[in-house]
Design a protein that fits this description.
single chain, mainly alpha, rod-shaped, 51 residues
């Protein structure tokens, strides 16, 4: 019985860690997308050609 509880606890901790880091990574991806859009708009406004 102890092994099953240990296994369930480990699975729950792994699922929590994956959810926590996936949620954090999702925010970082959105921030990077906003920065990319701002840089594209600045290049268009300034008239610089993309390399």
């Amino acid at each position: 019985m102890g092994n099953i509880l240990y296994l369930v606890a480990v699975i729950l901790i792994i699922m929590w860690a994956v959810g926590f880091f996936a949620y954090s990574a999702g925010n970082i991806i959105h921030i990077l997308l906003v920065i990319a859009l701002i840089s594209i708009l600045l290049n268009i406004i300034r008239g610089n050609k993309a390399v």
